[in-house]
């Protein structure tokens, strides 16, 4: 879409989203915490993709801010960019992810810390410029008790321009300011590569977000999880398993509120849920006064659902149930690199009762974890080869997870029992006695039925058998010569039959 130059005064703006052309108020999206015109680089390299800020004692990160002039007038050179970050509150759990707090003004609010400022170059009408501002991060480990030097936190950029009077007056609500004032934009983006969850050996602070009650009395909230409106292709929850885990405090708060939700399904871990569709709603969360809790997200791509798409955006929003206002929000950007595809493969098995069975997963061409689950979804074994007894013959689910990046695939394996059979009749023909061999693989009752046929007196006799013995010896002294049918009856059904000759 082409820019429209208008107005009788200078009008500068920072995009709130890709569709934003500087109109006030911005009605192009409700997701106003992921400005494409604000991004962080770990060095002054001119890169245009957002990186998670990382603490370095001697080297700053750089915050890039792109400003655009939508007016018919050039700038004067006196305009300035001011930059702020959101300070994690005292008592923040072991996490480096700060929520985008909407309830504090950028200057007077104690949650926003001034980073620095920079004068803008002269911009011609309709032109833009990108500024980079150095940012010496505080030590997140020493200052905030975090577990990682990664410092995901909210950023706020503001154009200071005395000649630009087209903007709405600021309020104490940051999101309201962003909507109404095109000189203000925010960034709260957690950028994660697909290999993060395994390469960081359990350090999951980067995928943790803070769910907090900023009030001095108990209060109720909801949590929403939605895909990016403008994103094309499959959303993240269709190509990957998206799961979230509540810490004990958050789970208890949800339990106090009645444990209602939509578009999620339970797992064997009470506090862990799977996302099944867009517009996840966790409602009602009853937090105590000033209570701080955490929510951890995981993304595991499924190899049989992969497309060529490489970037996904997913938003987590906390709302005040009393007012429906957004209290905090964060966007996750998940990056997926092309990779070889693998399949989880294991063959179905059919065995006799009381045999030991080993189900072997086919080894894939890269290091992987092999997990086995029962029909109830319980993890019962970790390893490539699962050994079970036939008395627990059932379906099992095999999960194969690549250790390099957490990509995974599933397959189902069925262990079944062979049909019960009459295996042998010895000798046959028989004179005085006969030994009949059998295999009983079903549970319940079993017996042999001997029916007289041609040349006999049509005698019919039943013999209860022990399934565990495997054979029975029958005296034929009182049977007349001729042909007989030996039938195996299991649970009232004839399973197998053979001919016996008495001579």
Architecture overview:
The protein has 503 residues and is mainly β. The chain folds into 4 domains: 1-187, Immunoglobulin-like; 204-225 and 236-338, Immunoglobulin-like; 349-417, Immunoglobulins (Immunoglobulin-like, Sandwich); 421-502, Immunoglobulins (Immunoglobulin-like), CATH 2.60.40.10. Helices cover 6% and strands 42% of the residues. The protein is built from 5 helices and 33 strands. The chain has helices at residues 140-144, 174-180, 196-199, 236-239, 248-256, and strands at residues 12-13, 38-41, 61-69, 80-86, 112-119, 128-135, 155-160, 184-187, 189-193, 208-212, 219-227, 240-246, 260-262, 264-266, 272-275, 280-287, 292-301, 311-320, 326-335, 349-351, 356-360, 368-373, 379-382, 385-389, 395-402, 408-417, 421-426, 433-439, 446-452, 460-464, 471-475, 482-490, 493-502. Strands 9-19-18-11-16-13 form a 6-stranded mixed β-sheet. The chain has a 5-stranded antiparallel β-sheet with strand order 10-17-12-15-14. Strands 20-26-25-22-23 form a 5-stranded mixed β-sheet, with no helix packed on it. The relative contact order is 0.11. The model is unreliable at 88-99, 102-109 and 196-205 (pLDDT under 50).
């Amino acid at each position: 879409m082409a820019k429209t130059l208008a107005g009788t005064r200078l009008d500068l703006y920072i995009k709130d989203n890709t569709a934003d052309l500087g109109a006030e108020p911005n009605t192009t999206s409700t997701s106003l915490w992921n400005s494409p015109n604000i991004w962080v680089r770990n060095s002054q390299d001119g890169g245009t993709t957002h990186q998670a800020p990382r603490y370095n004692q001697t080297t700053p990160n750089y915050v890039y801010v792109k400003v655009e002039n939508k007016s018919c007038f050039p700038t004067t050179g006196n305009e300035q960019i001011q930059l702020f970050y959101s300070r994690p509150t005292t008592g923040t759990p072991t996490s480096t992810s700060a929520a985008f707090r909407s309830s504090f003004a950028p200057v007077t609010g104690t949650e926003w810390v001034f980073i620095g400022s920079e004068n803008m170059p002269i911009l011609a009408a309709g032109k833009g410029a990108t500024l980079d501002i150095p940012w010496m991060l505080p030590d997140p480990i020493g200052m905030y008790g975090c577990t990682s030097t990664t410092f995901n936190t909210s950023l706020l950029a503001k154009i200071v321009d005395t000649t630009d009077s087209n903007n709405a007056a600021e309020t104490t609500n940051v999101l309201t300011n962003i909507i109404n004032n095109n000189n203000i934009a925010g960034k709260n983006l957690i950028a994660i590569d697909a290999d993060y969850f395994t390469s960081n050996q359990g350090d999951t602070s980067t995928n943790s977000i803070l769910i907090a009650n900023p009030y001095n009395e108990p209060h109720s909230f909801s949590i929403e999880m939605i895909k990016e409106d403008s994103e094309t292709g499959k959303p993240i929850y269709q190509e990957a398993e998206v799961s979230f885990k509540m810490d004990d405090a958050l789970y208890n708060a949800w339990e106090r509120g009645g444990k209602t939700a939509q578009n999620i399904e339970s797992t064997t871990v009470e506090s862990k849920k799977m996302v099944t569709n867009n517009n996840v709603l966790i409602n009602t969360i009853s937090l105590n006064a000033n209570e701080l809790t955490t929510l951890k997200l995981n993304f595991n791509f499924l190899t049989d659902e992969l497309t060529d798409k490489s970037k996904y955006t997913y938003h987590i929003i906390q709302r005040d149930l009393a007012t429906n206002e957004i209290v905090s929000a964060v966007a996750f950007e998940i990056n997926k690199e092309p990779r070889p595809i693998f399949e989880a493969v294991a063959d179905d098995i059919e065995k006799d009762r009381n045999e030991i069975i080993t189900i072997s997963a086919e080894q894939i061409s890269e290091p992987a974890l092999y997990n086995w689950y029962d029909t109830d979804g319980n993890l019962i074994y970790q390893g490539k080869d699962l050994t079970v007894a036939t008395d627990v013959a059932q379906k099992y689910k095999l999960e194969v997870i690549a250790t390099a990046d957490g990509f995974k695939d599933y397959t189902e394996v069925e262990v079944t029992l062979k049909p019960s059979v009459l295996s042998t009749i010895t000798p046959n023909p028989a004179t005085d006695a006969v030994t009949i061999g059998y295999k009983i693989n079903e549970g319940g009752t079993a017996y042999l039925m001997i029916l007289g046929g041609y040349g006999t007196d049509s005698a019919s006799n039943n013999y209860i058998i022990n399934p565990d013995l495997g054979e029975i010896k029958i005296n034929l002294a009182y049977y007349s010569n001729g042909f007989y049918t030996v039938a195996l009856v299991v649970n009232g059904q004839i399973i197998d039959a053979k001919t016996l000759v008495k001579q």
